[in-house]
Amino acid sequence: METIRVNLKEEIDNSYVILIDEGLFDNLANELKQKPLGNYYAIITDTNVGKVYGKKLLENLQSKNINAHLITSQAGEKGKTRKTKEKIEDEMLELGLGRDSCIIALGGGVVGDLAGFVAATYMRGIPYIQVPTSLLAMGDSSIGGKVAVDTLHAKNVIGAFYQPKKVIIDLNFLRTLPKSELANGMAEVIKHALIKDKDFFHFLEKNIDKIMDLEILKKTIKRSCEIKADIIMQDEKEKGLRRILNYGHTIGHAIEAALSYKISHGNAIAIGMSYAAKLSAKKGFLHEGSVIRQNNLMEYIGLPHRLSHHKLKPRKILGNIQYDKKIVDGKINFVLLNSIGDAFVSDEITLDDIKQILE
Ligand code: ADP
Ligand code: ZN
């Protein structure tokens, strides 16, 4: 027998910066002129964001003689599919975009996940930058390189870990973001406080009446990004620590699926987090008082913390959790809180525990 060893141990530097300010979007063409990331740019956006910002970026780039093209897909989670990905890729191929191209993901979390996944596989990988326009994307999904599309069976199950070259957060985008979407994004921000930073949680509580002011939002987004970046630096590919980012998501995802994704992700995980907190208290980890504080903050922001409004039977949610691949021997990897700011993954939670909490 002949043995040929293929040695592939390599050191990869996936480092990148997250820039946060007002006015970064207007300066983006300038910046790419000075520090190009490719010879051709594909701006991928959705129908809502494209209308307000897509054309503007295209014009800014073209006015600096930078080759660019605008690719617009249907807004909303429904468009985050393999079909849409294929359409975008075909459009890029028809334009003759090669390996020297760069993608600009301009939009909310849906665009970021989709465009990032296109970048991961187009010509076996081209660079991309994240330009998040929703609060959810700014404070959470644009960082960490989790890119994916949904299928009929589940969310985000086809994808990759593929880091952007840069994340550019321009707070001015938030001026046109619908109020309901602000609340939606705040759910992930609160999650970051709950799992990792009690001082940040106090900050949110203290500033609750001006929490949607731009100055407060700037601090909020910065801290949210720092927490997420810190976790990702320790565990890029979710082998351990990164799992705590799933706080509220086991029940949250099951609720989304049970409601055929007619509930927003932020609302679903807000409910999921509230049940996760209750379970943490029931198991003797978290103080009852902390559960109440978590719920109060959610409520103030306009996020739900109960299932009852949605006329959803616990049985349906349990059914969906049962399909989850994280279940081993009837036990679920479930994120609980020890206290506000301190999360851990428990493998002791059973479906029966969840059933009792939901009821
Ligand atoms: P998320 O960001 O919550 O993951 P989406 O990407 O679907 O979800 O964004 C939520 C909605 O907000 C979409 O309809 C999207 O087109 C819209 N949107 C995103 N950013 C802005 C913005 N800055 N101004 C107006 N609408 C926006
Ligand atoms: Zn989430």
Descriptive notes:
With 359 residues, the chain is an alpha/beta fold. It has two domains: 17-176, Rossmann fold (3-Layer(aba) Sandwich), CATH 3.40.50; 179-358, Dehydroquinate synthase-like - alpha domain (Dehydroquinate synthase-like, alpha domain). The protein is built from 13 helices and eleven strands. It has helices at residues 28-34, 47-63, 82-94, 109-121, 135-141, 179-196, 198-206, 214-234, 249-258, 265-282, 288-301, 314-322, 351-358, and strands spanning 17-21, 40-46, 68-73, 101-107, 128-132, 146-149, 158-161, 166-170, 327-328, 331-339, 342-350. A six-stranded parallel sheet has the order 1-8-5-4-2-3, sandwiched between helices. Strands 9-10-11 form a three-stranded antiparallel sheet. Helix 4 crosses helix 5 and helix 6 (179-196) crosses helix 8. It is globular. It starts with 16 loop residues before the first strand and ends with a helix. The mean pLDDT is 94. Adenosine-5'-diphosphate binds at residues 46, 48-49, 75-77, 107-111, 133-134, 136-137, 141, 173, 176-177, 181, 184. The site of adenosine-5'-diphosphate has 21 residues, from helix 2, helix 4, helix 5 and helix 6.
